[in-house]
Amino acid sequence: PSAAPARPNIAVIPGDGIGPEVVAEALKVLTATVGPDAFTFTHYDLGADHWLDTGEVLNDDTLADLATKDAIILGAVGAAPGSTTVPSGLLERGLLLKLRFALDQDVNLRPSKLYPGVRNPLAPWVTCGGDVDFVVVREGTEGLYAGNGGSLRKGTPDEVATEVSVNTAFGVERVIRYAFQLAIRRRGHLTLLHKHNVLVHAGGLWNRVFTEVSKEFPGVTTSYLHIDAATIAMVTDPARFDVIVTDNLFGDIITDEAAAVTGGIGLAPSANINTAHTFPSMFEPVHGSAPDIAGKGIADPTAAISSMALMLDHLGRPRDAARIEAAVAADMAGRTSATRHTSEIGDAIASLVAGAS
Amino acid sequence: PSAAPARPNIAVIPGDGIGPEVVAEALKVLTATVGPDAFTFTHYDLGADHWLDTGEVLNDDTLADLATKDAIILGAVGAAPGSTTVPSGLLERGLLLKLRFALDQDVNLRPSKLYPGVRNPLAPWVTCGGDVDFVVVREGTEGLYAGNGGSLRKGTPDEVATEVSVNTAFGVERVIRYAFQLAIRRRGHLTLLHKHNVLVHAGGLWNRVFTEVSKEFPGVTTSYLHIDAATIAMVTDPARFDVIVTDNLFGDIITDEAAAVTGGIGLAPSANINTAHTFPSMFEPVHGSAPDIAGKGIADPTAAISSMALMLDHLGRPRDAARIEAAVAADMAGRTSATRHTSEIGDAIASLVAGAS
Ligand SMILES: CC(C)[C@H](C(=O)O)[C@@H](O)C(=O)O
Ligand SMILES: CC(C)[C@H](C(=O)O)[C@@H](O)C(=O)O
C-alpha cells in the first residue's frame, strides 16, 4: 500500500464480543471526519461465530485479499477464557496474531495519555493529567509470540511443554530504530524494558542493538528498566515515561497496566504498523472481546475511535487525526460518572468532530 | 533439613548494594524474637565484590555447604544495570537463581498486604487497608528462568537469540497443589495467571493441571486471568485476590506490581521454599540490591524483616512468626511521612517484638 492513498481501501473486521459494537462507533466517527465517500470499506465476517459456522479461522484467499488493502480496522477477537466450544488461542493465534505476523506488522504502537479530569486509580499521586503522556513501541513479529513451542507426552504426568522466544537482530533493530525516531519527535527520552539479568541471550541482543542505534540519536536520552521494576514505575511515576520500547510479551503486559493507570482499557488505542509499507497496517483497541459485557451497549468505544486517529495519521492525514484526538479529549473533559450507552459516546465524539470542522 | 530443627543452622548471604544493610536489621529483629542462642548463623561473603576479588560467583564446595543448612537468609544480589565491570545476569543467574534451582526451591511465596494507614498509590480506590491481603505462589524452578537459550551469530546483524520456557507436569503440579492447599487455609479462592491464548503449549499444561488438581479441592473457588489483564486488576481491584498461582516470569512481574500497590517494594517479603524439605529454603526481600541508594542508610528493612517471619513459620515456629508480623504491623500503623534511618526501623520493630513478649 502507498503511504498516502487517495481513496484508501479499508478492511473492517468487527470480530467477536464487543468488537462489532465499538467498531460501529469508530466508523461513525471516521465518516464524520473524512466524509462518507473518502474511503472504501469492505467488511469481513471473521471470528468465533465464523469459525463455528465454517470451521475456518482465516483461509489463504481471505488473507491474500486482506493483504491488498490500505489498512485494516479490527474490533476484537477471542472467545471467553474457558470457553468449551472454542479452543484456547485458536482465534488469537489463527486470526489476530496471524495477521500481525503475515502482514509483517513490526511496530505495535500504543499511546497512553491521561486526559485532564479523567478518573484514574492513581489520584492523588498523579494529579495533573497532562503530565502522563507516553507511547509504548511494542515489537510485533517476534519473541514468545512467534508460536515456536510444543508439548511432549501431552496430557500425561510426564508432559514437558516448551515455548521459544525468538529474537533477531533484524527485528529488534527496526523496532528500536522506530522508537528512537519517535522519541526525537516527542520529548526526546527513550526507555528500554527487558529482563536482561535473567533472559541473558535475548536481553543481550536487545541491549547491544539499543546501545548501537542510540549512537545515531545523540539528541535522545535513554534509560533501562527491568520489566518487573517497570510495573512499579508505571504505578508510582508514570509521568517519567516518554517513549518505551520493548519486546512482544513485555509490551503486551505493560500496555495493559499503562491503560489501567490512565483511565482504563476502554480508552487505549493501538496501531499494528507495517513500517515497510509493503502490507496494510491494522488498527485496533488494546482491549479484547470482553464477552462478559458484550451485547449490553456498555462498552466504551473510545479506544476504537482513537485507533482511527492512529489510522488517519498512518494514511498521511495527520490533520484529520488531530481532529479526532481533539474531539476525544473534549468528550473526556466533559465526562461525569453517569454511564453512557456505547452509541451515545460515538454520537458525542462524532458531533464534536463535525462541529470543529 | 528437618521441618522443625531444634537449633537451626542458618546461612546468611548479605550480598550486594542494600543487601547487607537490610539483613543486619533482619538479624536484629530475629534475635530479639528468638533470643541470641536459639539459632546458629554462618555468614557467606558472596556477590559482586566477592566475584571481583576472586573471579568466583559460587563454587561447588560452597554450594554443597549451603545445601546442608536449615535455611538461608539472602539480602540481595546484582550489580547496577549497565555496570561495565559485572556482566549482566552473572550474579543473578550464577548465584540467586543457581540457589533457587540447585536447592529445588519450587515455591516462591510472596505475600502482599496493605496495612491500614500505609500510603499507597491507589487511594482513594483502595481505602480500607485490611481488604487487600493476598499471596502469590510463584513457580521457582522452571519456565523462562531455566536458562535454556542461546545466541546464533552473536553480535552480527544476523544474530538470532532464543530463550526457552520449560514447563513440566511435575513442576506445575506441585506448585498448583501447594497453592490450593494454601487457599484452603485462607479465604478459599485461587486465581491462575497465565497467557494461554498465546502461549498455548505451556498455558495448556498449566490449565489442564489446574483443572485436574481443582477437583481435589471442592472448597476452593477458582478463576483465571491472562497476565496482561491481571496487571489491570492489580491496580483497579487488588482486593479481589486471595491466592494467585503463576509461572516464574509472570510471578516475577506481578509481585513487583503487587508490592507497588501495597506500599512499595521496601515492604515485600518472600520465601523460596523447598517443599520437599530435602534442601534449605531461602528467605529474601522481593527488592533487589538497589545500588543507587546503597550506603545511604535509607533502605527500608521491613521486607527483609518480614521475610524472617516467613522463615520462622517454615521452621515450625508460627508463634514467633506471628510476633514479628504483629510488630511490623504496629510499626507501620505508627509511620509518618518522616524518613527514618534503616537501623531506626530495625530498632523500632525489634523493641516492639521484645515489648510484646
Ligand atoms: C488477544 C491477545 C492475543 C493480544 C496479545 O496478546 O497481543 C492482546 O492481549 C493485545 O494486547 O493485543
Ligand atoms: C534479581 C532477579 C533475578 C530476581 C528474579 O527475577 O526472580 C528478582 O527480580 C526477584 O523477583 O527475586
Q: What features would you describe in this structure?
A:
2 copies of one chain form a homodimer. Chain A has 357 residues and is an alpha/beta fold. Chain A has 2 domains: 1-105 and 280-357, Isopropylmalate Dehydrogenase (3-Layer(aba) Sandwich); 106-273, 3-Layer(aba) Sandwich (Isopropylmalate Dehydrogenase). Chain A is 40% helix and 21% strand. Chain A has 11 helices and 12 strands. Chain A has helices at 19-34, 48-54, 60-66, 90-102, 169-185, 200-214, 227-236, 248-261, 302-314, 318-333, 342-356, and strands spanning 9-15, 40-43, 71-76, 107-113, 133-139, 143-152, 160-168, 189-194, 221-226, 243-246, 269-273, 281-285. In chain A, the strands form 2 sheets. A 10-stranded mixed beta sheet of chain A has the order 2-1-3-12-11-4-5-10-8-9, sandwiched between helices. The first copy, chain A, has a two-stranded antiparallel sheet with strand order 6-7. In chain A, strand 1 (9-15), helix 1 (19-34) and strand 2 (40-43) form a beta-alpha-beta unit. Bound molecules: 3-isopropylmalic acid (2 copies).
| Total number of helices of chain A | 11
Question: What does the average pLDDT of chain A come to?
Answer: 94
How is the largest sheet of chain A built, in terms of strand order? 2-1-3-12-11-4-5-10-8-9
Q: Per CATH, what is the topology of the largest domain in chain A?
A: Isopropylmalate Dehydrogenase
CATH class descriptor name of the largest domain in chain A: Alpha Beta
Secondary-structure element string of chain A: EHEHHEHEEEEHEHEHEHEEHHH
Strand residues, percent of chain A: 15-25%
Structural class based on helices, strands and sheet pairing of chain A: alpha/beta
- Please tell me the CATH architecture of the largest domain in chain A by its name: 3-Layer(aba) Sandwich
Query: CATH superfamily of the largest domain in chain A, please?
Result: Isopropylmalate Dehydrogenase
Q: Report the biggest beta sheet of chain A as strand number plus sense, adding barrel if it closes.
A: 10 strands, mixed
Distance between the termini of chain A: 28 Å
Number of structural domains of chain A? 2
Task: Evaluate the radius of gyration of chain A.
Answer: 20 Å
Helix fraction of chain A by DSSP (H/I, runs of at least 4):
40-55%
Q: Oligomeric status of the shown chains? A: homodimer
